[in-house]
Specification:
single chain, 13 helices, about 350 residues, mainly alpha
C-alpha cells in the first residue's frame, strides 16, 4: 500500500511538532512548576478575596490586600522568632559534627565496619567525610532548578504574582479553559474545574495548617526532652512536612543526631517522639482538617514524590502530591465515570 506524500508530510510535521513541544516543556519545566505553585496559592487566597468582595472591595484590591496581609504575617512571625532560630541554628551546626563523630565511633565498634575496606577508608576518609560528600552531591542533585539565590527569589516573586492574579480573576482563567471545550461537554468541564479547585484548595489549606501544628508539636516535644536547638528543629519539621513521607524522615535525622551526642537513650526517645507525631498527623490532624478526603494510595504518593524529585528536584517533590490528586480527580471523573460508567466518590466525608 502506497502512502501519499501529503499524508507522510503531515505525519512528519506532527511528529516533529510533538518533539519540539516536549523539548520546550522540558526546557521550561521550572516555569510550569512555579506556575502550578502560584495557582495553588491563588486558589487558597480566593476565599479571602471573596470575603473582601462582599464588603464592596474590588477583587484586584482584595487580592493585593490578601497577599500583603499574608506576607505581613510571615514577616512578623520570622521577626519574632528569627533571632532564636538563628542562635539555635548556630548551635545545631556545632552539635551535628559531634553527632556524626558519635555515629562513626559506634559504627566502628560494630560488625558494620567490615562493610568498608581499610584501603578504601584511607582513600575516602571517615564516615563524616563520606556523608558530607554525599550531602553535597545530593544538594546538587536535588536542586537543579533553584541553583542560586536570585533564581529562588525570582521564583518566589513569580509565584506571588501568579497567585494574586488568579485570586483576583479566577473566572477569567476558568472561562478561558471552558471555551476550548465543545459546547456539549462544557457543563462537565465546569464540574471538573470546580472539583479540582475545591480539592487543591482544601489540600493546601490542610497541609499548611498541618505544617504549623507539626512544627509546634515537634519543637515542644524536643524541648521537653532537652534536645538542643529544639525550636530550629521544630521549624525544620514544619517546613519539611509539606513533602509527604520523605520530608518527615529528613527532618528526624538531624534531631536524632543531636540527641545522640547526649546519649543513645535520648536518641531513642526522639525516634519514638517522631513516630508518635507522624501517627498523630496521619490519623488525627489530617482527617480533622479535611472535610472531604481524596483517598490517595500511599504507594502512588511515594512513587510520584520520588519520581518527580528525581526528574525535577526539590520543586518536583513539592508539587507531587497535589499534582497526583489533580490527576486522580480528572481520571475518575472523565474516564471512570464518563467512559467506563462506574460511579465513584471523588471525596469522602468525615
Amino acid at each position: 500500500m502506497e502512502i501519499r506524500s501529503s499524508v507522510a508530510l503531515r505525519v512528519t510535521a506532527i511528529v516533529l511538532g510533538v518533539i519540539i513541544a516536549l523539548q520546550f516543556l522540558w526546557i521550561a519545566r521550572s516555569i510550569f512548576i512555579v506556575t502550578f505553585l502560584g495557582i495553588l496559592l491563588g486558589l487558597t487566597m480566593e476565599r479571602a478575596v471573596d470575603s473582601l468582595e462582599k464588603l464592596r472591595i474590588p477583587r484586584g484590591a482584595g487580592a493585593a490586600i490578601t497577599l500583603a496581609a499574608l506576607l505581613g504575617v510571615l514577616i512578623g512571625i520570622f521577626t519574632l522568632i528569627g533571632p532564636s532560630i538563628r542562635e539555635q541554628s548556630r548551635e545545631l551546626t556545632r552539635e551535628l559534627p559531634k553527632a556524626m563523630l558519635e555515629v562513626e565511633g559506634w559504627v566502628n565498634q560494630t560488625p558494620m565496619k567490615t562493610l568498608v575496606a581499610p584501603d578504601s577508608q584511607q582513600k575516602q576518609g571517615g564516615l563524616t567525610d563520606r556523608v558530607s560528600r554525599e550531602l553535597r552531591d545530593a544538594t546538587k542533585f536535588l536542586f537543579p532548578i533553584v541553583s542560586s539565590f536570585f533564581g529562588a527569589a525570582g521564583g518566589i516573586v513569580i509565584v506571588l504574582f501568579i497567585a494574586m492574579y488568579v485570586a483576583a480573576a479566577p473566572g477569567l482563567y476558568r472561562d478561558g479553559i471552558v471555551h476550548l471545550v465543545p459546547h456539549k461537554h462544557r457543563h462537565r468541564a465546569k464540574e471538573l474545574l470546580d472539583t479540582l479547585r475545591d480539592t487543591l484548595r482544601q489540600w493546601l489549606l490542610a497541609r499548611l495548617i498541618a505544617m504549623v501544628l507539626i512544627g509546634l508539636i515537634t519543637g515542644a516535644g524536643l524541648a521537653a526532652l532537652g534536645v538542643k536547638g529544639a525550636a530550629a528543629l521544630g521549624v525544620l519539621a514544619g517546613l519539611l512536612e509539606f513533602v509527604p513521607f520523605f520530608g518527615p524522615i529528613a527532618s528526624a535525622v538531624p534531631a536524632i543526631g543531636v540527641a545522640l551526642v547526649d546519649s543513645p537513650q535520648k536518641a531513642l526517645y526522639v525516634i519514638v517522639l517522631y513516630l508518635i507525631i507522624q501517627q498523630l498527623e496521619g490519623n488525627v490532624i489530617t482527617p480533622l482538617l479535611l472535610k472531604r478526603r481524596l483517598d490517595i494510595p500511599p504507594v502512588l504518593t511515594v512513587v510520584s514524590v520520588a519520581a518527580l524529585g528525581i526528574v525535577f528536584g526539590v520543586l518536583g517533590m513539592l508539587i507531587a502530591e497535589p499534582l497526583l490528586a489533580a490527576v486522580l480527580v480528572t481520571t475518575k471523573m472523565l474516564y471512570v465515570e464518563d467512559v467506563v460508567g462506574d460511579e465513584v466518590q471523588i471525596g469522602k466525608e468525615k
